[in-house]
Structures are given as structure tokens and as C-alpha cells.
Write a structure and sequence with these properties.
The complex is a heterodimer of chains A (160) and B (106). By secondary structure, chain A is α+β, with helices and mostly antiparallel strands. Chain A folds into 2 domains: 31 residues; 114 residues, Sandwich (Immunoglobulin-like). Chain A contains 2 helices and 8 strands. The longest helix of chain A has 25 residues. Chain A is globular, with a radius of gyration of 20 Å. The N and C termini of chain A lie far apart (57 Å). Chain B is mostly beta strands. Chain B has a single domain, classed as Immunoglobulin-like (Sandwich). Chain B contains no helices and 8 strands. In chain B, the strands form 2 sheets. Chain B has a 5-stranded mixed beta sheet with strand order 2-8-7-4-5, with no helix packed on it. In chain B, strands 1-3-6 form a 3-stranded antiparallel beta sheet, with no helix packed on it. Chain B is elongated. Chain B starts with a strand and ends with a strand. Classes of the chains: A alpha+beta (160), B mainly beta (106). Strand 5 of chain A pairs antiparallel with strand 5 of chain B.
């Protein structure tokens, strides 16, 4: 058998990669929207806060950088689409961090006087993870949103 | 000395949604870290932040160790009437850090 030229290697790799990408693409497409499975700790913490209500994955956004060099202070913004009127407002926003030792990061209590359901803060993330935010609406419905972040150097591991 | 800082407009029109930015210097020690001698550094965090507007609570946050050191928080409220906003941070030693700001609503 003839030795592979670097050209062949590239071509083979490219083919193999495209095939894999194709398969992954199909899998991703077939995957249900909430396929990401939460850790048990997050599920428990969620249950304590929203009971058996099922969050709907729309109507809010969670903004955080896709990549953080350190997890010590990661900017995070949660916004809920709501007119914030007496008939339509957000009661609470919860942020869950499954990759940290404690699953709950914070709860924000808003209410009808908040005016705008947007909060910005800075979080400490122990490692790469999926951050989850929930919004409890005044009518009892719950919304959810997730965002993935890669943390190069986690918080909590060293002297800051 | 821990000194909280807040920023909000000093005047607003009635019904206007105003942004409030807050910052406090605090270690927010998680209780999971060790010092140079290998001893656990005790848990020491602010667990509650509240904002009251002329005595009525308009915003509250419950914090856990995942909130970064020197907590920064920005949120909104509706300027309803002239008066005083009071901000309080309570940590697990029971210490209350507070500051106030006045707003004129026209």
C-alpha cells in the first residue's frame, strides 16, 4: 500500500469530519429543545422554587460571554419579555449554576414596580457549564433560558 | 471599610423607568477555599440585598456563593414620586451595609 500523502490525509480527515458533522447535525436537529439534562442538584433546587410547573423555553434571554478566561467574575444579564404592568409582570428570576458546588446562584424578586425585567450582575463560575435562568410570571407560568459558557480557569480553585 | 455605591438619576419624570446600578466591596467568601496554610477560609457572604422606595420594597435579591466578589447589580424601577431610596446589603455575620439616594420626580 502506498504511503498516504499529506494531501490524502487532509482529504480523508475532511471526509471523515464532514460525515461526522453530518451525523451530529442530524442528531442535534432531532434532539428536543430541552435535551440538556440538568444535574440532580439543579433539578431539586428548581423543584423547591417552582414545584411541578414546567418552564417554557421562550420569552426571555440570558446573555453571558461564550468564553471566560477566569470564572471569578463573569458578566451576566437576564432579560424577560414582559410589559411589567399590573396584569403582566415577572415575580422572580432565578439563576442556576450546575457546575458550581451550590446549584443556585441568586434569586431576584421584581414585582410590578420593577418597570423593566432586566438584571445585570457578575457571577463566579467553577468550570465550563450550562447556566440556567428561570422567570416566574405573575400568572403562575414559568419561562426558562440556558446559555453555555467555557471557563478556562475556574473560580474557587485558587487564591484570588 | 466596606462602602456601598449606587448610581441612579437624581431627577426623573413620573412613570419613567430608571436604571439603578449598585456596587459593594465585599469578599463574598464561598467557604470552599483554603488559605496558604491549608485551612478552610470561612464562608462569609452577603445573602440579601434590598431596595426600598419611600419605605416600600421594590427589589430584592437573594445571593449565594456564586455571586462574584464585590457584587455588582443593575436593575430597574419606576420613578413614582419624589423621595428616598434605601439600599441594604446584609451579610451572614448580621452586618447591614446601607446607603440612601434621593430622587426628584417631576
Amino acid at each position: 500500500m502506498e504511503p498516504c500523502t499529506s494531501d490524502d490525509v487532509v482529504r480523508l480527515n475532511r471526509r471523515a469530519m464532514l460525515q461526522r458533522l453530518g451525523t451530529t447535525g442530524v442528531l442535534v436537529a432531532l434532539w428536543p429543545a430541552r435535551a440538556w439534562t440538568m444535574s440532580e442538584a439543579v433539578q431539586q433546587a428548581m423543584h423547591q422554587r417552582i414545584g411541578t410547573r414546567t418552564p417554557q423555553p421562550h420569552g426571555m434571554t440570558l446573555r453571558l460571554p461564550p468564553l471566560a478566561e477566569t470564572g471569578n467574575s463573569v458578566p451576566l444579564t437576564v432579560a424577560v419579555d414582559s410589559a411589567m404592568t399590573p396584569d403582566d409582570h415577572v415575580l422572580r428570576i432565578h439563576v442556576f449554576v450546575e457546575g458550581n458546588p451550590e446549584p443556585v446562584a441568586a434569586t431576584y424578586h421584581l414585582g410590578r414596580r420593577a418597570g423593566k425585567a432586566v438584571i445585570s450582575t457578575q457571577m463566579r463560575l467553577a468550570r465550563s457549564q450550562t447556566v440556567l435562568a428561570l422567570a416566574e410570571m405573575h400568572d403562575g407560568s414559568v419561562r426558562s433560558v440556558t446559555a453555555d459558557i467555557v471557563v478556562t480557569l475556574g473560580a474557587c480553585v485558587e487564591e484570588s | 471599610m466596606i462602602k456601598p455605591r449606587v448610581r441612579l438619576p437624581s431627577t426623573a419624570s413620573k412613570g419613567e423607568v430608571i436604571e439603578i446600578k449598585t456596587l459593594i466591596s465585599h469578599p463574598m467568601e464561598t467557604g470552599y477555599r483554603r488559605d496558604a496554610q491549608g485551612h478552610m477560609i470561612p464562608h462569609h457572604i452577603i445573602h440579601t440585598f434590598t431596595c426600598t422606595y419611600n419605605g416600600e420594597q421594590v427589589f430584592r435579591a437573594d445571593w449565594h456563593p456564586a455571586v462574584a466578589a464585590n457584587p455588582y447589580l443593575a436593575f430597574y424601577t419606576v420613578a413614582t414620586e419624589s423621595g428616598r431610596l434605601r439600599f441594604e446589603w446584609i451579610d451572614d455575620t448580621g452586618t447591614v451595609y446601607a446607603t440612601e439616594a434621593d430622587i426628584t420626580v417631576v
